Amino acid sequence: MIDFAVFSITIIAVWSVLAISLHLQFGLTGLVNFGQVLPFAVGAYGTAFAAAHGLPAWAGAGIGVTLAPLLGLLVILPASRLAQDYWALVTLGAGEIFRLTMLNVPVIAGGDEGTSVYRFQNADLAMVLALTLLLVTLLFARRVGASPLGRMLRVLREDEVLAATLGRNPFRLQRMVTAASWVMAAAAGVLYAHVTGYISPSSFTVLETFVIWTAVVLGGPSTITGVLLGTVIVQLTSVSTRFVAQWSGLPSDLVANLRLGAYGLVLILVFLYRPQGLIPERKLRYDADRL
Amino acid sequence: MRKSLLAACAVVLLSAGWGETGQAAEDAIPVGVIANLTGTDVQSSLDMVHGAQAAADKINASGGIKGDKIKVIVEDSEYRPAAGIEAATKLFDVNKVSAVLVFGGSSVTLPIAEMAQPAGKIVLNTSASSAKLGDYPGTLYSTLPLDDIVGAQLGDYVAKEGVHTAVFIVPNNTFGTGLMDKAAAAFTAHGGKVLKEIAYSEGQPDYRADLQAVQRLKPDAIIGAGYGDDTRTVFRAARELGINAPWYVAYPSIFAVEDPKWMEGRLMGLDNGGLDSPLAKTLSLQATKQYGAAPRPNYYYAYDAMTLLGLAIEKEGTTAADIKKGLPEAVKGYQGATGSIDWDARGQRINPPMDYFVFRNGALQPAPAP
Fold first, then answer.
1. Which stretch is the leader sequence (chain B) (predicted)?
2. Which tens digits make up the pLDDT trace of B134-148?
């Protein structure tokens, strides 16, 4: 049982990093990234590329974490003159283009068959690494959120023109946030690859992006505590329903479908009654004399 | 906050597992079944679960294995690798199963095999067919032949039917492209010419863009593979484009015919055979009575997998090491629902019986072997 708990905590920590990454982009800056799976996949595929070509694991991690922010900057380039709504389309498309490239170019990392990568044999070590990564990203996101930069990002989220009139370059700020948050997501991808031991394009579909979005919207996109709570609820719902079928005696397929129904119901209820998420952003009050 | 969240998470997981561990101890022999109860190809997956349960029920009805009954524990893979790994981790660690039966594509089965191998567990594959599955000897055993076997037979079959030029249309995944590569090699070895290989993305609402090349090339035949809903959409696109070439496919039983009248005599193919045995017929009647419809072939593969597992446990014991030792013995002379099963040294099925079909009068009808 302990191994399963360790595995589940590891996975929750990995997805929490992805959720914090999305919090920085969407919750803080207002960037609607529907391709959040892309930096995650880039991190994982850096690892897979290294494994497929006989490179050491650290080289794979380096490739993934370096390539992700560069790719991020490339992806948002066409969106620089577009309203933030269009970011959703651009990032969604970019995620699919990357997945289809990995699917159709087997020389990178095995194509549709995927590739095996080094798998952590020590589950405790994987959990410690995942929790450490989560702690680092959490502290970083908190620091950004509480800084003058964080306040400006909130201004940008609410009104891009207002941010520009304050002498800031909105696109420069957006680039900065994208690069930082994509590094986080890529690091999560590297870790995920070493936890599962196998990488294939089917692990990085649009569905994964929407699992992250579900967690973020549920918990409250503008607060770190909210996105963490949302991730824990979504992941624990998935894990705990595995036990419901045996406890309740209900057919497994019925329970599996009820679980999906529960996700949808929870989202609808949150949209109706808690549109800001379970933990909404509080109004920040500053004493102007002390600023 | 972070610590309290993780602590709460651990408490929930541990409390959840407390009851499960106790339950596993009561259930003499827990066996895991991982199937996509949600996601893609759910109905075939449910048939697989029913087949595994039917074999377990039969073993239990005859007194179990040395007095111990088999307890089947079913987990959902959602047809996603991450969920499949989560399901396998739960079965291995919480339910203490030594072996799991897996239904799912290679994208789900391969990661499960990857984690089962170092853990010393056994995986019985009842549906995936990537040749790469043969890379886990001693861990992964298959009750259906892999793509290298079926693909080669499909290529031979089409060539022997007098087809000279063909276009391949398959889903762009391990199953589709793996099968296409082997079939194309066999077809060209007989002098056939492959005009084009089309690997389409699954789940599209329309495939006319993919099929327009076929319209231009005018092949003697189309060779393909695919899954239910996708194949229906592909057929619709072909019909609307006026592509009237015959289709030779692998596993026609998992194809969904869109327009039976148009498809009359146009769809042919080969499927894993052996399903005309008295045992298979009995099982089919039993399943039809219980679930209201005749089961798909995966029902029988799962039935054979569970029966072989039971035989291995009976011969050697319940640990994964015992099962690994017992499976090669169990399969010797075994006559199952899918005919006799022969495994190579890797535990992969060779010399499988094959059945040939043609679509007539609204259903697949047996056809003579070439």
1. 1-24
2. 999 999 999 998 888
Residue numbers in A near B23 (CB within 8 A): 246
Residues of B with CB below 8 A from A3's CB? 89, 92-93
Residue in B138, B152, B75, B140 with CA at minimum distance from that of residue B106: B140
Q: Please check whether residue A12 lies inside any domain of the structure.
A: yes
Q: Which of A70-84, A175-189, B59-73 has the lowest mean pLDDT?
A: A70-84
Residue in chain A nearest B135 by alpha carbon: A116
Of A22, A39, A43, A31, the residue nearest A210 (C-alpha): A22
- Cβ contact (<8 Å) for B76 and A256? yes
Q: Which two tokens stand for residue B205?
A: 């609402």
How much is the average pLDDT of B255-264?
92
Task: Kindly state whether B86 is in contact with chain A, defined as any CB-CB distance less than 8 angstroms.
Answer: yes
CATH superfamily, with its number, for domain B148-273+354-367: Response regulator (3.40.50.2300)
More confident residue, B287 or A288: B287
pLDDT digit string, tens, across residues B289-315: 999 888 888 899 999 999 999 999 999
Do A7 and B87 count as a contact with CB atoms less than 8 A apart? Answer: no
- Closest listed residue to residue A137, CA positions, set A280, A22, A270: A22
Q: What is the mean pLDDT of chain B?
A: 88
* Model ipTM value: 0.84
* CA angle (B180 as vertex; B175, B185 as ends), nearest 5: 140
User: Which range of residues forms the domain containing residue A139?
Assistant: 2-203
Confirm whether A156 is domain-assigned. yes
Over residues B178-187, mean pLDDT: 93
Check residue B182 and give its pLDDT: 92
Q: Find out if CATH 3.40.50.2300 is the number for domain B2-144+275-337.
A: yes
pLDDT band at B14 (very low <50, low <70, confident <90, very high): very low
SS3 for B99?
Answer: strand
Using one digit for the tens of pLDDT, what is the confidence trace for B32-78?
999 998 877 788 889 999 999 999 999 999 999 989 999 999 999 98
| Closest to B336 in 3D by CA, of B307, B298, B297, B294 | B307
Whether A263 is in a domain gets the answer no
Give the nearest chain A residue to B10 (CA atoms): A5
Q: Indicate whether A183 belongs to any domain.
A: yes
For chain A, say whether B216 makes contact (Cβ under 8 Å): no
- Collapsing DSSP to helix, strand or coil, B14 comes out as helix
* Alpha-carbon radius of gyration of chain B: 22
The domain total for chain A is: 1
Say whether residue B7 is in contact with chain A using an 8 A CB cutoff: no
Distance from the A78 Cα atom to the nearest Cα atom in chain B, whole angstroms:
26
CB of A169 within 8 Å of any CB in chain B? Answer: no
In the numeric block, which tokens belong to residue A212?
């992250």
| Sequence ranges of chain B with CATH classification 3.40.50.2300 | 2-144+275-337, 148-273+354-367
CB contact under 8 A, A253 and B42: yes
Q: Is A247's CB within 8 Å of B19's CB?
A: yes
